[in-house]
Amino acid sequence: MNQFMTLLICLIGMPMIGFLVYTSLERFMSRLNDKEEIKSELNRLNQLAECSSCGRLSRTYQRELARYDLLFNRGVLHKTELSCPHCKKESDFLPITVNLSFHDTHLDCLSLQKSEYTEFKKQREQYEELLYLSKVDKSFKNKIQQTESDC
Ligand SMILES: [Zn+2]
Fold first, then answer.
1. Which residues, in sequence order, are CB contacts of 44 under 8 Å at separation 6+?
2. For residues 90 and 75, what is the distance between their CA atoms, to the nearest angstrom?
3. How many angstroms is it from 109 CA to the middle of ligand 1?
4. Which pTM does this prediction carry?
C-alpha cells in the first residue's frame, strides 16, 4: 500500500514539478527578453542626431513626437518624415556617434529615461490611434463627397 502511494505521488508529482519549473523558466526568459527589447528600443529612441537645417541636436523620440505634431497641426495626413523638434522642419539628420558629457544634460536633447518609456509608448499609441481615426474619417468624408458629386 505504502509503495503504491509513493508510486502514485511520483507519477502525479513529477510531471507537475516539471510543468511548474518549465513555466517559471519560461516566464523568467520572457521577462529577460522584454528587458532586452526595452533596452534596445530605448537606445534607438535616444539616438542623437544633428538637424541639417538648424544644426541643433535632438533625439529620435523627440523627432517622432515632432512628426506627430506636424502631422496634426498641418492637417495633412500623408507620410511625414521625422521632423526637427526645434525648427519644426522635415530635414536630414546627421547621426552623432560620439557621446559628449553635455549631451545628457543639454535641454535640447534630454534622453528618455527608462521610467518615462511606458508613458512615451502610451502617448505614441494614442497618436497612432488618432492618426488612424482621422485617416478613416478623411476617407469616409471623401467617399461621401464622391457619392454626392456622382448624383
Ligand atoms: Zn532643426
1. 60
2. 15
3. 12
4. 0.73
C-alpha 90 to ligand 1 mean position (Å): 8
* Cα 103 to ligand 1 centroid, rounded to whole Å: 16
Exposure of 146 by Cβ count < 10 A (0-12 exposed, 13-18 middle, 19+ buried)?
Answer: exposed
Between CA 81 and CA 124 the distance in angstroms is 15
Q: What is the mean pLDDT of each run of 10 residues along the chain (151 residues)?
A: 84 90 94 92 94 94 90 70 87 88 88 93 92 81 78 65
**CB atoms < 10 A from the CB of 83, how many?**
25
**DSSP class of residue 90?**
B
CA 38 to ligand 1 centroid distance, Å: 27
Residue 70 near residue 87, CB atoms below 8 Å: no
Strands 57-59 and 93-95: unpaired
